[in-house]
Amino acid sequence: MTEIAEITGFRVPPRWIFVRVASTTGAVGWGEAIVAKRPGAVLGAVDDLARNLVGAPANRIEDAWQRMWRDGFFRGGPVLATAAAAIEQALWDLKGKAHGLPVHEFLGGPVRDTVPLYAWIGGDRPADVLDGARARVEQGFRVVKMNATAELDYVDDHAKIDDVVARVASVRAEFGAELRIALDFHGRVHRAMAKALLAELTQFGLMWVEEPLAPGHEDALHVLATAAGGTPIATGERLHNRWEFKRLLESRVVDIVQPDVSLTGLFELEKICRMAEAYDVAVAPHCPNGPVSLAASLQVASCAGNVLIQEQSLGLHYNRGYAGLPSAEMHDYLVDPAPLTPHAGSLPVPGGAGLGIDLDERVVQERAGEWWLPDPNWRHPDGRYAEW
């Protein structure tokens, strides 16, 4: 029986956390954790979980996930969730490689030939969105997403709403219906301003509005539905499992859920997709992350028909020396970048075994280091904390 022999975490630029799981046969699988502003806690959680899992059967993935979720008594939270998700992804990578199959073949097989993608423009405080949109269209993308705004107070100047409208209008005016636009409120907009913004934005036919309210205010999303008109509402990137998504789906307000495979784990993401389908809700997996997270997301997107589109991080502002960290891109860590190289704004269904990519372990080892990403600490002019 093949057992888990070793679990090791690595911090690599620009702000990614890779997790390597080795089996007693010498085979290796890779996963990816997130929560980049708490890397020490995440790697500590990986180590804690590893102490319990080393020696366990490597092929009993669901059993390992249940142990990581239930055995600690205290459950949930992003740090434990992402550590468990990374280990679980790596176990799927091992299983697929052991059988010479992509992971999606264990989940029913593909339902599509390609997976559509979208790309980011702008930044945390959005600017230069028109130039960004032009560059993305030249790269072949037909869907872009931008942050809506920087800091907003509970009730703020209407000029800030005008700025949001002007940014979206500039992209819509240049590209018309050729380019679809999603707008991320990032949970930084309070309810009164969200209502005002949504009323102004209905004219642009947005693909969706994302995280219109901060976590903890999901019960107020129905208040925004009227203001949003026909604009779909998307959220869910900070949720961890199907039980949390169940509450969201039962609200009957959200049109698109956005689970992150590096919080849920791969098989849990697939379960969330199936559950969302029963509520006639689409899925757009959250993934402004690294190559392993994207590869794991693609395995589920390949076999779940209600996955609408996949987020990916090529060219993302976080990859370019964010907060003084070294810059890097997904392809820097891949033996062969082809499986994660978009064409015409999409990626083919993965054909390689496991997660469908091969990390260059030499590069991972060379670039691993003790980076730290500071909190943004956004403030209003009077010194009060502002949602980031």
TrEMBL record:
NCBIfam families: PRK14017.1. InterPro entries: DgoD-like, Enolase-like_C_sf, Enolase-like_N, Enolase_C-like, Mandel_Rmase/mucon_lact_enz_CS, Mandelate_racemase_C, Mandelate_racemase_N_dom. The keyword RNA-binding does not apply. GO terms for biological process: amino acid catabolic process. Residues 126-234 form the Mandelate racemase/muconate lactonizing enzyme C-terminal domain. The lineage of its organism: Bacteria, Bacillati, Actinomycetota, Actinomycetes, Pseudonocardiales. It comes from the Bacteria. SUPFAM superfamilies: Enolase C-terminal domain-like, Enolase N-terminal domain-like. Keywords: Lyase. This is Galactonate dehydratase. It comes from Tamaricihabitans halophyticus. SMART domains: MR_MLE (SM00922). One of its GO terms (molecular function) is lyase activity.
